[in-house]
Amino acid sequence: MEGPRIIPGIDGIGFDSTGFGDAGFDDGKDPEALRTIGEVSRALDIRQHVLRYWEEQFPALRPVKRSGGRRYYRARDIALIVEIDQLVHREGYTLRGARKAIAEKAVKDEPVSTVNEAGHPSAKAVGVGEDIRRKLVDIRRQLAEALAAA
What we know:
By secondary structure, the protein is mainly alpha-helical.
């Protein structure tokens, strides 16, 4: 299997694509600066029409659009583009498979909040609580059976 892709032109020495956006562009701009589609296309060696298509296919890829429809990519957009490129062009995923892998990673990496904005228990916390409750009930049942058998 091919190793990590080194992308020239980022950080001056290259960008290890397994880091997915930890580095910035070597263009004198702040690492968090917005980049045009042309800048991103040149730095990552991905055609502009491919970037536009990926915007349609990956809901998380949403660059800022200013007047006239000009796209500006944030650092997190660029990191996602690198991840998509890695999955599709290096690891052989289909777009559907890459979309699924990215969605699963986002769910896995998302912290579980116990309270929503209104101060009520969140659905996630309630779901986690129910899962724990079921496990505890099962443990209680097993202990009761073990004590009865002793």
